[in-house]
Amino acid sequence: DGGITQSPKYLFRKEGQNVTLSCEQNLNHDAMYWYRQDPGQGLRLIYYSQIVNDFQKGDIAEGYSVSREKKESFPLTVTSAQKNPTAFYLCASSISGGPLNEQFFGPGTRLTVL
Amino acid sequence: KQEVTQIPAALSVPEGENLVLNCSFTDSAIYNLQWFRQDPGKGLTSLLLIQSSQREQTSGRLNASLDKSSGRSTLYIAASQPGDSATYLCAVRASEAAGNKLTFGGGTRVLVKP
Questions:
Q1: Which strand ranges, in their side-by-side order, compose the sheet holding B4-5?
Q2: Exposed (0-12), middle (13-18) or buried (19+): which is B12, by Cβ within 10 Å?
Q3: Cβ contact B42–A103 (<8 Å)
Q4: Which of residues 79-108 of B touch A (CB under 8 A)?
Q5: Engineered SS bond to A68: which of A47, A49, B72, B107, CB 3.0-4.6 Å?
Q6: Is B21 on the interface with A (CB under 8 A)?
Q7: Cross-chain residue pair A42–B42, CB shorter than 8 Å
Q8: What is the distance between the alpha carbons of residues A58 and A85, in angstroms, rounded to a whole number?
Q9: Are residues A105 and B44, on separate chains, in Cβ contact within 8 Å?
Q10: Other Cβ atoms closer than 10 A to A82
């Protein structure tokens, strides 16, 4: 069953801690993306990767870091430098980074800072 | 900088009525536009993708139109059902030079009352 999985579904973090959100896809897609969604708002792009071992900053990259060591995995670390990390985080992938390619989304991780 | 707006932010209709959801964007140099559905606490499901050369796309009870020159798209849902209750998001894809970056609107939350 092909798709995108994100774990955990819910994550709680104490202030000052770094946390890592997992995103895995078995669609054999080259491109992967991380978005943040705040209540009542659309999605904003954090980071994206068009190929293994390469990634670029999106619109709101400050306080986040990523890695892309494997094609199927694109973990996102929310660092203590992110001042307001409570949000819903969505991972997506597409066949490649070209504009004709539809993005498919995972189920999301809800991060809450205690 | 591309900005995408969806008005109204929320909409409530009785079952059976047709739904009209609006999306406007500031930069007409788009590659395509995509409509998504999001259920509470879930990821995004793609509904329709309209290429910049197209005027409309249809899938079942859904029809989306695109007027690139005026920076507008409209999603029509015929004969609404309670199961159509969700948040609907539109997103535009920038020109080919910008790759596969999506810019999202804030969404319209729809409630269809039985």
A1: B4-5, B19-25, B72-77, B62-67, B56-59
A2: exposed
A3: no
A4: 89, 91, 93-96, 98-102, 104-107
A5: A49
A6: no
A7: no
A8: 16
A9: yes
A10: 22
Bridge partners of A48, per DSSP, are: A33, A56
- From the centroid of its chain, how far is CA A2? 18
pLDDT at position B101 is 80
Q: What pLDDT sits at residue B96?
A: 58
Note the pLDDT of residue A40.
76
Q: Tens digits of per-residue pLDDT, A10-49? A: 999 888 899 999 999 999 999 999 999 998 788 999 999 9
Secondary structure of residue B6 in the 3-state scheme: coil
Contacts of B42 in chain A (CB under 8 A): 107-108
Q: Give the pLDDT of residue A42.
A: 85
Q: Which pLDDT tens digit goes with each residue over B28-65?
A: 988 889 999 999 989 999 999 999 899 999 999 999 99
Mean pLDDT estimate for chain A: 92
